[in-house]
Specification:
The structure holds 2 protein chains of 2 kinds. In chain A, 70% of the residues lie in helices and 3% in strands. By secondary structure, chain A is mostly helical. By secondary structure, chain B is mainly α. Chain B is elongated. At the A-B interface, α2, α4, α5 and α6 of A face α2, α4, α5 and α6 of B.
Chain lengths: 190, 115
């Protein structure tokens, strides 16, 4: 069993940071909705408040890690340009996708949307975490602030979902390949 | 924008809403700048070339770096101005959410292709 370094980075980006963010965000949305619906819910214990702050900060770290690894590590491999006359495009995912009408939409819609909408995630969740940390239990006195924070958290979930879905589909139709091979285990003969 | 126009007195809270409003409005603005730059880069080859800050990543590097800088700078300025103020939150949040909604629209390729 082996994996290439580029595949490993794609896994870290998508399954490590992206999917974990989506999971964490679904939990945060439930809690933020509960806290937004009733101001009395903001009578948090200090332990609960500390947990929420740490939880949101972890989400911020995941969101930034996902967009930075995606943009600066994986995306350059995705958009690499083959030399003139190259016929094997398997190492050039973007070119591979646009070479066929049946797959070009995965780039022109999927990647074009994903690469930009994904950046709304760290902006939104950083703001959400900042407001929660700054105000804490005081948020119970700021109904409009709570509602706006919930809206941004919802958008971050939607944006992360779009990026995650298209990331998975792009990697299915034109996986990022190459780099050093890492041997994970030696398979036995059947 | 006149800061004094926005200042209202409603709060019974120990912390004014200015700091939160600054964070929310700047996040909306940062998202909107990102979407506008992505749109502009898609429509103009000249703008696209200016947005290439890091060649392997192409114009996406300029779009995101510029938007993040605008977001952080706006946030710092608004935080400094509104830190201990109570502001007209409803109007500010409506603007921030409208900017966020426009960002979602402008990052959706079929909408970009309409222009």
């Amino acid at each position: 069993m082996e994996i290439t370094t580029r595949s490993l980075w794609t896994l870290i980006h998508g399954m490590g940071f992206g999917a974990l963010y989506l999971l964490a965000c679904s939990g945060a949305l439930v809690e933020l909705f509960r806290l937004t619906a009733k101001s009395e819910a903001f009578d948090l214990t200090s332990g609960h408040e500390r947990f929420m702050k740490a939880y949101l900060l972890t989400m911020v770290a995941l969101a930034w890690a996902a967009v930075l690894t995606g943009t600066y590590i994986i995306y350059p491999w995705y958009r690499a340009v083959p030399s003139l006359g190259a016929t094997d495009l398997s190492m050039f995912p973007q070119r591979l996708l646009i070479s066929s009408p049946s797959t070009s939409g995965w780039h022109s819609l999927g990647m074009e949307w994903k690469e930009h909408i994904a950046w709304l995630v760290p902006i939104s969740i950083t703001m959400v975490a900042f407001v929660f940390i700054r105000y804490g239990r005081e948020l119970k006195n700021h109904r409009q602030l709570r509602a706006a924070v919930l809206c941004f958290a919802l958008v971050s979930f939607f944006a992360a979902g779009v990026a995650g879905f298209f990331g998975a589909m792009l990697n299915k139709y034109a996986p990022v390949q190459g780099g050093k091979t890492i041997q994970l285990s030696h398979g036995g003969e059947k | 924008m006149n800061g004094s126009e926005r200042v209202v007195s409603t709060g019974t809270s120990a912390i004014q809403n200015g700091s939160g409003a600054a964070a929310i409005l700047s996040a909306g603005l940062g998202s909107f700048v990102l979407a506008v730059l992505a749109f502009a880069g898609d429509k103009s080859a000249l703008i696209k070339s200016y947005l290439v800050f890091y060649k392997p990543t192409g114009p996406l590097s300029g779009v995101t770096t510029t938007a993040i800088l605008v977001w952080i700078l706006t946030w710092a300025i608004l935080e400094w101005r509104w830190l201990n103020r109570t502001v007209a939150a409803g109007r500010i949040f409506a603007i921030a959410l409208a900017l966020l909604g426009l960002s979602l629209l402008l990052t959706f390729p079929p909408v970009v292709d309409l222009f």
